[in-house]
Amino acid sequence: MDAALGPPAAMADHGDDLTPMMTQYVELCERYDDALVLFQMGDFYEAFCEAAEVVSRELEVALTQREDSTGTYPMAGVPIRSAASSVETLLDAGYRVAVAEQVEDAEEATGVVDRAVTRVVTPGTVVEDELLAPGSANYVACLASATGEGEGTYAVAVVDVSTGEFRVTSADSREGIRDELDRFAPKEAVLAPEFDGDFDLDCMVTPHDPDAFEVEAARERLESVASRPEAVVENDAELRAAGALLAYAAHTQTADGALDHVTRLTRDDPRDRLELDATALRSLGVFENPSGSDDHTLLDVLDETSCALGRRTLVRWLRRPLRDRERIEARLDAVAELTHASLVREELRDLLRDVYDIERLVGTVSRRRANARDLRALKATLDVVPKIRETLSETDSALLADSRADLDGLDDVRGLIGRAIREEPPTEITEGGVIARGFDDDLDELRTNAREGREWVEGLEERERERTGIDSLSVGHNEVHGFYIEVTNPNLDAVPEEYTRRQTLKNSERFYTPELKRREDEILGASERADAREHRLFREVREEVAGETERLQALADTLAALDTLATLAHVAVENRYTRPELDHDGVAIRDGRHPVVERGTEFVPNDVDLREERFAVITGPNMSGKSTYMRQVALIQLLAQVGSFVPASEAKLPVVDRIFTRIGASDDIAGGESTFMREMTELTAVLHDATRDSLVLLDEVGRGTSTTDGEAIARAVTEFIHDEVGATTLFATHYHDLARLGDELDGVRTLHFAVEGDPDAGDGTGSDGVTFLHTVAEGSASASYGIEVARLAGVPESVVERSRDLVARETGSSEPATDETDEPGEEQRSAGDESEAGDEAAIPPEAVAELRELRVAELTPVEALVRLDTLKRRFDDQDN
Ligand SMILES: Nc1ncnc2c1ncn2[C@@H]1O[C@H](COP(=O)(O)OP(=O)(O)OP(=O)(O)O)[C@@H](O)[C@H]1O
What we know:
Blueprint: H1 9-12, H2 20-31, E1 36-41, E2 44-48, H3 49-59, E3 64-68, E4 71-79, H4 83-92, E5 97-102, E6 115-121, E7 140-145, E8 154-160, E9 165-171, H5 174-184, E10 188-191, E11 204-206, H6 215-222, H7 229-232, H8 236-252, E12 266-267, E13 275-276, H9 278-283, H10 298-302, H11 308-319, H12 325-340, H13 342-352, H14 358-366, H15 372-391, H16 398-406, H17 411-420, H18 441-468, E14 474-478, E15 482-488, E16 500-504, E17 508-512, H19 514-546, H20 549-575, E18 587-592, E19 606-610, E20 615-619, H21 626-642, E21 650-652, E22 658-662, H22 672-689, E23 694-699, H23 707-725, E24 728-732, H24 736-739, H25 741-744, E25 748-756, E26 771-778, H26 785-792, H27 797-811, H28 845-853, H29 861-879
Helix pairs in contact: 6-8, 11-20, 12-20, 13-15, 13-20, 14-20, 15-17, 17-19, 18-19, 26-27
Bound molecules: adenosine-5'-triphosphate.
Adenosine-5'-triphosphate (ATP) binds near residues 603 and 627.
């Protein structure tokens, strides 16, 4: 265990001899032994011993010492006002942080001030706005399995403590639940004891009290969100995961009412949605592109949301596209209506820009951390609601009409905040200036008294000058002595009797009068009481708002859905998307485009028709557009099931149950057994789980092994999917033999990517005739395009010719490298025509030897390219 966590040995050794304050520290370290304890001392958070070393190192603050009767301890601290960024740094460094605050007024305390941990900040339970990304959910997840008869069932629950979103779902295998978990991309995960930490996760893994996973304890815990937890969850695994997670959330949020906004547990039924595992999400570039960044992604293209609520919902919809056609059509109807009603759409989007993140605001209110500005922000959002309702008044589609009917503007709450809170209040809620005039008579009276008192004092100087005849008499105020009347020394004779001396200065004396004193006390008392009363009134208002949490959450849901629908409509109009038809048995897309690649390129649209033949083998040279084509089919299908329009001029689609992708291995040229093993494991999952209703994308399956094996595997996979599974499948391959399957199997068609021009026209000057058209066409591509690509990449002409020669020898034939199909009877090119091979003398002898030994048939295309590249380097080196 990290020595910075738990009670420091150096202190614990002193047992009862420790000072009371250090005893408190050690006890808190003991209780929160998985977190680094930050211990409030006045205006600082301090850490001691090993924890101090961590704080000093990570936060770059001085390591000092604290000395007491028992010894000298290393100490390091950070000012409370910069705590948020310090906590963030510690979280980034992999620590959880327990914030121990003084929970008693230092002046009122007898003995040592009482301290308690008010928050345990962990990556998955952060609630501070500064530490949260605005439009993204921040989940902590919990994994558990079923006990007893449900064995073999696994569940994952997630909660976003900042918004109160709380979900649970299950799967019937470890892999399945792993996929679920990856889909949520949690920042932190709590594992049930039975996993014994053996899930290899990307996020922080937190051990948690095994008792919380007991079925009974979990059920009791869930009663705060569901009166009969069993009615919401499907099995014990879900009960344990959700219950233990709520217990963990409570462990981190110790303030009263801190979880009041976690009001409901939503169960996601896996059968309700289109399944997309993490591999599919990644290879399709939904949330992150292959290089791991979040630009050039589908989300990036779609995210034209107006508010954070909408963005989070858009992400949720993309993560969980629907399978229920009625629900999809309902979304599509709404999007369609908004694409036509451009005024309504733009007005709606405009209004939604004024909507604050009320989901998080509700969380802040229920943690009793909301200040007056937060409440005003809430009111600003509520002010927009009637306008949104008005904007939607003419809409017909069911979702929009229902949203309009559901929109509860919480007029009571809005009225209350409007009456109670000033328009531009300060952030501090204890120092007055928060409650509006007219809201509370007592407060107004106190304020009037204070004001009158101040006015009386303001007029005092004038009155006293007149009364005493001392023109230089002045009235002032200072922190120490309060109000005073100042008279310069030459005028002291004229000072009236009732003046009492308060202070003597070099050239003057300061006095007060009984009336001035009385007024002063009155002003002070009234202001203090007014501030205190304001604070109390504010808390009452906040309490009242907190009581409306569920209505506010319902409003947030409706606004979020409206924003997402308006966004999808906006994106559809901007990018010329069309409404997909989802009542078909197979996929037929006209002029389909890749929503991300089409940005910033002259994109060539392509058709796809997989109705008669549901399996397409796609050939074509590298870089011709095979992967893009396959991905665009999957993305169009995904978008359709999200309820979005799609980039095509027409899309007739089925509703699919799952999208499988095995793409992208081309970036991984490491080869070797482990890659091949992984490829085969993934393939097993596809063959095992795919159904007739699935969409399967396979890219160069089998390439991790020798050509013979690879080709055999690819063929067997094709036959299996074709004969047994019947899934709609796109299979990109370099194995030309596979293309022949199109003739052998009824349900397989062969497509290829065309290349324009005659590669033989290349004269080595760089003006080769080959251009990628990115157009898909019937039939298979010529096998020698790989070599043409090598030529385009700059491999010397002589090597290119030699490669062509070798291919011809290996295959026993030589094909012209044109984009014609492999029709029999094509003119054969004479093999080994050395006269075109250029200056053979320029080839280093060892390269010739290497070429002669090359067993082309046993190389994968990428390996062949790598070998060509090595050869090219030899030439370059020789030339230099
Ligand atoms: N329809 C298209 N219109 C315009 N550009 C396209 C199109 N399809 C693909 N491209 C561009 O061509 C490049 C290569 O595409 P892609 O990666 O799909 O080829 P590939 O045949 O799968 O190649 P490899 O076999 O090497 O994986 C991409 O960078 C893309 O920008």
